[in-house]
């Protein structure tokens, strides 16, 4: 399984129109494969939409995208609103929980960490050891490294919460155990970023 994460930066004031056009066009695309989730940024970099697509592998991705591109109703007519776009292919860590999109939110936090070249095996080992503690308080919906994209030496973990207060409490409880976050980050991470996302009405992940 892989996930394609597509991030589009929009012109200010365009979000409502883009979501409306996307919602109208998505049933045509859904005939070929389903989204995992479609989100807009609420805290962090503004005017971004993020859509995440699961595929069995790169070959399936190429085949489905080629088929969908022939559909006259796809893609949605939003090019006039797009300032920038970024595509990343994520490979889940072997021990990551499987994501079944549903009503886990509506608050989603996407965190992306860049790391020193060559440290990914150590990062994965420390996360695998520490994750059972974190799962006592909340579970990531997505966890894996960026295989292709502008930041290949990075990994992404995405979490769902019913509210910002629940997020704060889960993070507080996990930190209080002394076993979270996974050790070694200070020596391995070069930068960290996060975004708070809200799902669109048509997003399978809510």
Topology:
Elements: E1 2-10, H1 15-30, E2 37-43, E3 48-55, H2 58-69, E4 82-92, E5 107-115, H3 120-134, E6 140-148, E7 154-161, H4 164-176, H5 185-188, E8 189-199
Antiparallel strand pairs: 1-3, 1-4, 2-3, 2-8, 4-6, 5-7, 5-8, 6-7
Give the termini distance in whole angstroms. Answer: 21 Å
Q: pLDDT below 50 for ≥5 consecutive residues: which ranges?
A: none
What structural class results from the helix and strand content?
Answer: alpha+beta
Second CATH tier, the architecture:
2-Layer Sandwich
CATH top level is Alpha Beta
pLDDT averaged over residues: 97
| Beta strands, count | 8
The amount of helix comes to 25-40%
Backbone CA Rg: 17 Å
* Number of separate structural domains: 1
Descriptive account of the structure:
- The chain has helices at 15-30, 58-69, 120-134, 164-176, 185-188, and strands spanning 2-10, 37-43, 48-55, 82-92, 107-115, 140-148, 154-161, 189-199.
- By secondary structure, the protein is α+β, with helices and mostly antiparallel strands.
- The chain has one domain: Alpha-Beta Plaits (2-Layer Sandwich), CATH 3.30.70.100.
- It has an 8-stranded antiparallel β-barrel with strand order 1-3-2-8-5-7-6-4.
- The mean pLDDT is 97.
């Amino acid at each position: 399984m892989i996930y394609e994460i597509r991030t589009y930066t929009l012109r200010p004031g365009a979000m409502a129109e883009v979501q409306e056009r996307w919602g109208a066009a998505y049933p045509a695309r859904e005939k070929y494969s389903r989204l995992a989730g479609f989100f807009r940024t609420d805290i962090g970099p503004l005017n971004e939409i993020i859509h995440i697509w699961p595929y069995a592998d790169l070959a399936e991705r190429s085949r489905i995208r080629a088929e969908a591109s022939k559909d006259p109703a796809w893609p949605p007519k939003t090019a006039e609103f797009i300032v920038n776009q970024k595509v990343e292919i994520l490979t889940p860590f072997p021990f990551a929980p499987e994501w079944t999109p549903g009503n886990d939110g509506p608050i989603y936090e996407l965190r992306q960490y860049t790391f020193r070249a060559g440290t990914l095996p150590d990062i994965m080992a420390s996360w695998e050891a520490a994750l059972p503690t974190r799962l006592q308080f909340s579970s990531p919906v997505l966890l894996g490294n960026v295989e292709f994209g502008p930041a290949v030496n990075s990994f992404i973990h995405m979490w769902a919460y019913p509210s910002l207060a629940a997020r704060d409490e889960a993070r507080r409880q996990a930190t209080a155990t002394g076993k979270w976050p996974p050790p070694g980050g200070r020596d391995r991470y070069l930068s960290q970023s996060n975004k708070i996302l809200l799902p669109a009405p048509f997003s399978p992940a809510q």
